[in-house]
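Could you please review the protein record set out just below?
***
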Amino acid sequence: MSYIEHSLGRNETLLYKARFPWFYRAGAWSLLVLSVVSGFAAYTNGYDWLGAVLAILGVGLFAAIMVPIWTTEIGVTDQRFIYKRGLVWRTTQELQLRAVEEVNLRQGVLGRLFYFGRMDLHGTGVDDIVLPMLADPMGLRKALQNGIAAANIAIAPMRSRAAGRRPHSAA
């Protein structure tokens, strides 16, 4: 079970779970295959140590790219935004959706063509949350907007009840 699913409240539902762009995984697998094939070629040509170094280097580079992808979760619920990183040492940043002031999208020409980009979230009373490059940042932005709208609708009855309890002054 993922961290986000495990941390959901009783009446909280997951609206969106972000993904990393496809080219991160493609690059990691390409490096792994290239280094193992090169290592095998070096090994069969009598360069045992070079073959081993190339294979180990490929596995290391693959792990360096994939471990952050495997251990990072970014999600939007109907109440909050959650950004979790790490496996052994876990770091989380959570932001109540009613506290979100600004959502900024940075997407260049290639990002628009291949549907990837970066986002920054600004909230009241918290540090800015700067997200890594993500696939479908517009989907994340839409989920944030829907979640913010849902959070504001849910809080409106509480505000009206609180306003109704105020003592009236004699005029």
In short: DSSP finds five helices and eight strands in the chain.
